[in-house]
Design goal:
By secondary structure, the chain is mainly α. It has helices at 2-37, 42-47, 59-66, 70-101, 107-117, 126-135, 142-165, 171-178, 183-194, 196-212, 215-220, 229-233, 244-277.
Length: 280
């Protein structure tokens, strides 16, 4: 009976591994196909859609960077994403610290207001934002794209950070106060290093949301020299023809930063999500 039980467990484990392998393959293969297809010509793409390219020709990447201005779009995306992430995470962390660690009358009400913000989709505010930015002469500027991402990134930052900060022992702050530390020294020198997993988590989530966003930059930006990568990808479609392989090369350039960031920081992301979701 023991041998039968062991065999049954091995079969179940084998089935689990096969299912997980197939799931991982379905997630990874599209990226592999994009990379392989980016080295093909348009003719080869249609003749040998699923096969390996005959040669590793980088002409498509050269075309995407030089003729498609992907380099300019890439820099614009970096500027918008970096500013949005830094401001959103910094201010969001401070708000979370005030809500979870300080005792004041309206802390719970403020926390609930931020949580209500998670229920409002950013795209539902396009028309009023456009009207406001138009009156303030902010259209076609980085500011018009950065502000919505910061504002709508706040609720998620507060949600994750407050859950993590509430679990930090208060004795650490009490000891720091006894040593003469002020509130800013406590936050930046004691709380911030401890909260690193959650900070990394919200930073990566905010970065991916901003980096991949298409609608906000497409509506608020009109100058091609200010457009971000997702908007720039739409410029590859011509009136009569489309350079598919150069578009694929541009897509590869677009998705690589998100993949690299996640690979480098995935451990901190998992720790931060678990810590931020579990209270008590």
């Amino acid at each position: 009976m023991k041998d039968v039980g062991k065999m049954k467990n091995k079969v179940i484990q084998g089935v689990k591994y096969i299912v997980l392998f197939l799931y991982a393959l379905t997630c990874i293969y599209p990226m592999i196909w994009l990379v392989l297809s980016s080295f093909k010509s348009n003719e080869e793409l249609f003749e040998n859609t699923w096969g390996i390219p005959k040669s590793l020709n980088i002409i498509n990447y050269v075309t995407a960077v030089i003729q498609g201005h992907i380099g300019t779009y890439f820099i614009n995306s970096v500027i918008v994403s970096a500013v949005s992430v830094v401001i959103c995470v910094l201010l969001g962390s401070m708000v979370s610290y005030a809500i979870s660690r300080m005792q004041w009358k309206f802390s719970k009400i403020v926390h609930k207001l931020f949580m209500l913000g998670m229920m409002i989709p950013i795209y539902a505010t396009i028309i009023p934002l456009f009207s406001m930015f138009n009156q303030m002469h902010l259209l076609d500027t980085y500011v018009s794209v950065i502000i919505p991402h910061i504002v709508f990134g706040f609720p998620m930052v507060v949600f994750i950070m407050t859950g993590f900060l509430e679990n930090i022992p208060r004795e650490l702050e009490e000891a720091a106060v006894m040593d003469g530390s002020n509130i800013y020294q406590i936050f930046f020198k004691i709380i911030t290093p401890i909260a690193k997993p959650s900070i990394v988590t919200v930073a990566v989530i905010t970065f991916i949301d901003v980096w991949n966003d298409l609608l906000i930059p497409q509506i608020f930006l009109t100058s091609s020299d200010k457009m971000t990568l997702p908007v720039g990808l739409t410029e590859f479609e011509g009136l009569h023809t489309t350079d598919y392989v150069s578009t694929i090369a541009a897509v590869v350039i677009t998705v690589i930063p998100s993949i690299v960031v996640y690979i480098l920081l995935h451990k901190n992301i998992m720790e931060g999500m678990v810590a931020g979701a579990v209270k008590g």
